[in-house]
Amino acid sequence: xxxxxxxxxxxxxxxxxxxxxxxxxxxxxxxxxxxxxxxxxxxxxxxxxxxxxxxxxxxxxxxxxxxxxxxxxxxxxxxxxxxxxxxxxxxxxxxxxxxxxxxxxxxxxxxxxxxxxxxxxxxxxxxxxx
Length: 130
Known about the structure:
- The chain is mainly α.
- It has helices at residues 3-21, 28-50, 53-73, 96-129.
- It folds into 2 domains: 3-82, no CATH class; 97-130.
- 75% of the residues lie in helices and 0% in strands.
- The longest helix has 34 residues, at 96-129.
C-alpha cells in the first residue's frame, strides 16, 4: 500500500461523492451513468488488478469521514440544486436597481425627444401660417 494510491482513491471517491450529492435530483441518472458507475467500476478494477484492497478500504473510510463532516457542517444547509439557480458566465441577470436606472434614463431620453418633436411641429405649423 502506497500513499499515492491511497490519495488517488480518496480523491476520486471524494469527487464522485460531492458530484453525486450536489447533482440536481432530476439529473441523478445522468450523474450515475456518466460518473458514479464508471468511476466505481474503474476504481474496483484498479484495486483488483493492483491488489490494493486495503488501500481502497482505507480510502472509503476516509472519504466517508470527510463527506460526513462536510455534510453535517455545511452541506445539509445548502439549498437543493435546481435549474433555476444555474447561471452562465457572461449572461448574468441585471439587478433590479440597474433595470430601474436604465428605465429612468430611457424615460428622460424619450421626454427630450418628445419635446424636440413638439417644437418641430410648432415650427412647421408657424411656417404654414406664414
